[in-house]
User: Fold these one by one.
Assistant:
Number 1:
Amino acid sequence: MPTAVVTGASRGIGSEFVVRLLESGWKVYAGYRSDKHRLELIDNENLFCYSLDVTDNKSIKNFCDKITDDVDLLINNAGVPDGRWRNISEIDDEWVLQVLNINSVGPVRMVRELYDKMNHDSLTTIAMISSLMGSIDDCHSGRSYAYRASKTALNMFSVAMKKEALEDNISFLILHPGWVKTRMGGEHAPVELSDSVEGMLNLIVNHTLDKSGRFVQYDGVDLPW
Ligand SMILES: NC(=O)c1ccc[n+]([C@@H]2O[C@H](COP(=O)([O-])OP(=O)(O)OC[C@H]3O[C@@H](n4cnc5c(N)ncnc54)[C@H](OP(=O)(O)O)[C@@H]3O)[C@@H](O)[C@H]2O)c1
């Protein structure tokens, strides 16, 4: 039975990944920050839920220490939006640093802590849940300063780490879920949660080492950097 780790699993995209992976026969270690939310409703012997704050190395270590299996898939999903400041003068630099801490550095901390639990004899996939908003080529409307920058940084961390990880059979996949109906995406988002996660899982299970560092949308469309 393959093993997956999902961060930010309490609700939205993370919780949908948990449900779908369990249905497909995976063992899942799910991290929730404070409240289990949707995880509370899932009754499955292959689900292990522990608290996890991706900004806190101690919390990460406690979470990872509970994982007794080799990890085949890490889904770095936890993320926050920015302040949606209207003007440059309104940018709150404390919150900018927090957004970068969660969205860009959090996934790197998870990779670092789990690296030795990734079985180097078989392929491990690290899925980074990024965003089209991290694309510099696509930044036509500007704004969302911290969120955009955090996802651009996440993309670069991923591409930069991929070289070293290739030697260890670890492949990065950088995913844009689409604009999805979640607390972050809002009710007017055009993409259903189920369609987004089904598409991303399809990309994950078909991912290979030679495609490491691919930046792709949930429906398989490759994205510009
Ligand atoms: N929805 C979209 O349209 C969209 C589009 C592009 C990319 N994305 C990306 O997709 C990912 C999931 O987004 P979503 O729409 O599902 O958002 P969501 O419904 O707001 O869920 C975000 C999840 O991240 C968790 N989280 C936040 N800070 C954390 C921390 N410090 N440590 C651990 N977990 C933390 C939240 O936990 P709590 O329950 O404790 O708050 C929650 O489980 C994010 O990375 C987001 O940037 C979303």
Number 2:
Amino acid sequence: MSFDFTTAPDRRGTGSLKWDKYAGTDILPLWVADMDFLSPPCVREALARRVAHGVFGYTQPRAETIEATLAWLRDRHGATAEADWLVWFPGLVPALNVICRAFGASGDEAIALTPVYPPFLTAPAFSNLKGVSVPLALEGDRWRVDPVRLEAAFTPRTRLLIFCNPHNPIGRVFSEAEVAEVAELCARHGALFCSDEIHADLTFGPSRHFCALRMSGAAAARAITLMAPSKTFNTPGLACAFAVIPDPGIRRTVREAARGIITEINAMGYVACEAAFRDGEPWRQALLDTLRGNRDFLYEFTAREMPELRLRPMEATYLAWLDARGLDLEDPVGFFEKGGVGLFDGKLFGPGGEGFLRLNFGCPRPRLEEALRRMKTALDRR
Ligand SMILES: Cc1ncc(COP(=O)(O)O)c(C=O)c1O
């Protein structure tokens, strides 16, 4: 089956966060994490059928949606979950915030491994928790968790650790041993292990993603796994995500913290989720081929044409973490915006992010080529 990843839909005028930031300019937006691809045909067709029905009342997940989700967890991730372990959210950012609110009181602490997706740093603060950043270590060209530094970060007030696997922005897929090591440290210190796996279906291989739901013992009992179809199938605007929480007590605490804040979520989100998980695998495989091609092009182009921007091996996501420290630019984002490309500023990703830029390569190749040409021209003119 062939799918179209070459047409670049014009997203201007659709209220797109990514494109509206630069409305009225000639800046190509490669910042926020959604893709400039159409969603899979199976998703668009299911949504069209639902729209044709014409009634959009308060909606719960249908049994079929839950079945498709549990089957995806089982078949793709080798994880067994039960229907009532699923807690639905309009996004993983609200889920992170509810979890911080549920498990921490003012002055308690939440650990994140940095650089990391910025809401991992803001969610604790919004609930008056102290965010504790533990920088990831760079060993040669590979980022890894530093267990000694991590262990030292736990205090009697540590309530949770928010883990990102695959990790946005460094693109690592942590191994089973690495996941187990972090989760066991959490268990030993009585902290919750909260694993955000929104990028789990965007791995390039050969490393295989290890879903936290596959853990056993004490570490598994105090774990929450966060997932969503939205990054993979390009549906974040449909606001549908879920937490998988095996422990009934933890589940109850999360549901109570969400009461009155998270109500029924988007009817269209459930439709897209079900269709994507049930019928979207061939499209996902084709997407991965396209993204692998873009990633390899990005590797080659930066190495050949812009060696002052360092790119380390990426195992997952369509988000490249460019090391621009060698350029010694005061305002790297402003510099490339002047050159016609909108990137995400690494310093927003916490300690260790200063001097880096995040580039979203989830777009048709000609758009990526144009953006990289513009970046090279800006650097050549410097
Ligand atoms: C690690 C991670 N978690 C959560 C999100 C956003 O989740 P949502 O759109 O479901 O709130 C992103 C978006 O890029 C992400 O990278």
